[in-house]
Amino acid sequence: MLDKLEKQRTYALIGHGGAGKTSVAEMILYNSKAIQRLGKIEEGTTCLDFEPEEIKRRGSVQPGFSAFSWNKNRHYLIDIPGDNNFIGDISYLLHGVDGVVFVVDAIDGAKPLTKKIWSEAKKQGLPAIFFINKMDRERADFDMAYQSLVNTLGIKPVPLYLPIGAESDFRGMVDVLENKAYLFSGDGVLTPGEVPAEMADIVEEAREAAIENIAESDEVLMEKYLEEGSLTPEEMQQGLRAGVLSGEIVPICVGSALENKGGANLLDAVQQLLPSPLEHPAWQGKDGEVREASPDEHFSAFVFKTITDPFAGHLSVMRVMSGKLSADMTLFNPLKDEKEKLGQLLYLEGKKQTPAKEELGPGAIVAAPKLKKTTTGDTLCAEGRLFVLQVEDLPPCILSYALAAEEKGEEDKVFSAVQRLLDEDINLRLARNEETGDMLLSGMGQLHIETAVEKARRRYKANIVLKTPKIPYRETIKGRAEVQGRYKKQTGGRGQFGDCWIRLEPRQRGEGYEFEDAIVGGAIPRQYIPAVDKGIQETAAKGVVAGYPVVDFKVTLYDGSYHSVDSSEMAFKVAGSMAFKKAVEQCKPILLEPIVLVQVYVPDEYMGDVIGDLSSKRGKVLGSDSDKGITEVRAHVPMSEILQYAQDLRSMTGGQGTFTMEFDHYEECPAPIAEKIIAESKEAREG
Question: Where are any strands of DSSP class E within 115-210?
């Protein structure tokens, strides 16, 4: 097994949306003969993008998986989406691999999201190979894309190949280290050719720089290079791999996935340069324990994705971290304190599933159907040899929509359908807002939520309507008042009587509610004082001015009277409520609006547009920082102004901008806006 594992490769294709990762995956599978024809995104025929939502949008919305062989060596591949809406779980997915192939297109080069995704790979210490794709397209510019990677990501690149020609004239590649040219013939096959005369100096310069970078990755090689000025091909390969594994250098490949140009070379680079699962650093556990990535260790596997299959049900996709795995084993889930009996194990190739019959070691990616309690993020291990992988917290959701059933009476069906999606997508959250009554679905962006709703409609026949959620405004006061609340009701029998005097005054923002009992001399009996407090709190929760909770105020109960027969807790509760309503109206009530902290990441050239747009949304720009061509803008913006910001930013930056937002604080709502909200609330209550 050790010999097979040394040659095994487990890696992910990552990069920003639109770079062509799924097409690169298609090219890889075609070259390895895992598939017989090249599918196309535009035609909806790719192996890994098979969900109707992916075919409709022409882009991945969930990771794709494939297990295949290259030159008799086992490869496991994950194709990770590149849209900001669908990469919330990227840290979990990257725990499933030993290295990455980072795809960048030759038209746009590095984008803001490129930097974010690269930082995730670097955070987990994953060795990388870059593939500059789409060299056949109009405006393809290898030098621009190459330089953008250096400037934006700060990598030390080693170009393994330089393109011969570009756009429709992309006709071959030069192997930089060998200083040999190869021209494309039919179906991406390379045949030896001459290095074009106009490229000779460029190739020589690139070769010298590459050898120097390789030598710097190893002290012995550096010493020899300084003494002799050259390295043997074997030494170059040795130094190149050492540099890649340490993260010191990053090799660059080039090609065109749609035309199957460069696929075999990329696979060779993966085989030669990316690590085997045995070279993965020891896995870190939550309790400080470590597990070596060895088949001789106690068994452990990390479940990094759950898929819902129409026939097999829940599939728990896992990566073997240590030990050996085979069908019909009994494992233990420490986080759920539950035994899990495995049945059949499955290799995934898009929607195709193939039974895994052999014993599997570290690095294997397989799916286990119908586990009882195991969910995404769990670790499975041998009972008695417990181990829980230390993983990062997932990013917070940045957008919420209110869900409603298209027809009355189907609310339970909607709730049930969305609940089932949560098992599959850990970046979705479902909650009920007790204040507004809305059922809220939260996610990583508008497209994320819309896609989830489409799945629920298609799979579970749940007719869901998406509505912009109600903004959680608050009411508060700016003045002081002393008022009486007197409730007297006489009926045929026993009456109701409660009488209280309260002092209402504002508190600092965020200090909440305070009730002070200042009754002396038994003006109100002790047993009725909590009822006054309760009446005030219940009324404050419902709001007085516009139906939103009243916050940050102090009530002092200082006087009152009672009737020995007619007084009751209910009477004093009503009296407290009446006094509070009257007092609020005299205390200059105002409306507070929620303010969110927004962090926007855009290419430098869009900074002015973004700042201007945020200012037009009543935002207060807190500052901006530029780093390697990417500007981060931070601002406080009213939540009501930014619910549709994903669309605005996309159109403003041509899809190159990304952002995060989180609730920060409340501020006084401007009078014209407050008046409009109060009028709408009044109309809704009367209607």
Answer: 128-133, 157-159, 161-164, 172-175, 180-184, 190-193
pLDDT in tens, 443-492: 887 888 889 999 988 888 888 988 877 788 999 999 999 999 999 987 76
Stated pTM of the model: 0.80
| CB contact at 8 A, 91 and 391 | yes
β-pairing, 589-603 with 190-193? unpaired
Closest CA to 549 of 584, 583, 573: 584
Q: Is residue 225 a contact partner of residue 215, using CB atoms and an 8 Å limit?
A: yes
User: Domain 591-673 belongs to what topology?
Assistant: Alpha-Beta Plaits (3.30.70)
Tell me the chain's radius of gyration from C-alpha atoms: 32
Q: Where are the alpha helices (DSSP H) in 374-486?
A: 411-424, 446-460
Residue whose entry in the numeric block shows the structure tokens 């495995």:
342
Element (H, E) at 578: helix 569-586
Q: What are the start-end ranges of the H helices in 18-82? A: 21-31, 52-57
Summarised one tens digit per residue, pLDDT across range 516-539 is: 999 999 999 999 999 999 999 999
Domain 293-381, CATH among 3.40.50.300, 2.40.30.10, 3.50.50.60, 3.90.1720.10: 2.40.30.10
* The pair of three-digit structure tokens given for residue 532, joined into one six-digit string: 């006054």
Asked if 314 and 305 touch (Cβ cutoff 8 Å), the reply is: no
Does 3.65.10.20 match the CATH number of domain 399-467? no
SS3 assignment, position 665: strand
Q: Is residue 303 within 8 Å of 378, Cβ to Cβ?
A: yes
As assigned by CATH, the class of the 474-587 domain is alpha beta
The answer to whether 179 and 207 are in contact (CB under 8 A) is yes
Residue ranges of domains in the chain: 2-279, 293-381, 399-467, 474-587, 591-673
The residue among 503, 511, 656 whose CA lies nearest residue 582 is: 503
Residue 440: name the closest of 402, 478, 385 by CA.
402
Residue 649, SS3?
helix
Two tokens at 546?
A: 């516009």
**Fold of the domain spanning 2-279:** Rossmann fold (3.40.50)
Measure the CA–CA gap between 355 and 346, rounded to whole angstroms: 5
Q: Does residue 576 register a pLDDT over 90?
A: yes
Rounded-to-integer distance, Cα 637 and Cα 643, Å: 10
Assess contact for 344 and 460: CB atoms under 8 A.
Answer: no
Same fold, 2-279 and 399-467: no
Residues whose CB is less than 8 angstroms from the CB of residue 152 and which lie 6 or more positions away in sequence, other chains included: 109, 110, 114, 115, 628, 629, 630
The position carrying tokens 């990501």 is 153
Q: Please calculate the CA angle 44-46-51 and round it to the nearest 5 degrees.
A: 65
Where does the pLDDT of residue 684 fall: very low under 50, low under 70, confident under 90, or very high at 90 and above?
confident
Question: Three-class SS of residue 601?
Answer: strand
Task: For residues 40 and 26, give the distance between their C-alpha atoms in angstroms, rounded to a whole number.
Answer: 8
Q: Please tell me the distance from the alpha carbon of residue 405 to that of residue 438, in angstroms, as a whole number.
A: 12
Can you tell me which residue has the tokens 């547009």? Answer: 609
HSE on the CB side for 241, CA within 13 Å?
15
- Whether the pLDDT of residue 624 is over 80: the answer is yes
Nearest to 202 by CA among 183, 224, 230, 181: 181
